Amino acid sequence: NTWLQGRDKPLAQAALAWILRRPEITSAIVGASNAKQLTQTLPAADVTLDAEEMAMCEAAWYRIPRRAPKT
Q1: Burial class of residue 18, CB neighbours in 10 A (0-12, 13-18, 19+)
Q2: Does the structure show a pLDDT above 80 at 7?
Q3: Full-prediction pTM beyond 0.85?
Q4: Closest CA to 44 of 33, 26, 30, 55
Q5: How many CB atoms lie within 10 A of CB 45?
Q6: Which of 2, 13, 20, 62 is most buried, judging by how many CB atoms fall within 10 Å of its CB?
Q7: Beta strands in the chain (DSSP E)
Q8: Alpha-carbon Rg of the chain, whole angstroms?
């Protein structure tokens, strides 16, 4: 989350904006537990990430540990 400091982009909005800008993604499912979470997340549709922010999101995505497929 520290890379977002000073960029005026909440983490949830930046993450959703990144997903929505990926060409292979046609829609995103937003899980909100309450109306406040939903109103905080929906503005992501209008958030623009610059190239550096997109690259940071990509890097974070590929650092997430993954389980090996079951054989």
Answers
A1: buried
A2: no
A3: no
A4: 30
A5: 12
A6: 13
A7: none
A8: 14
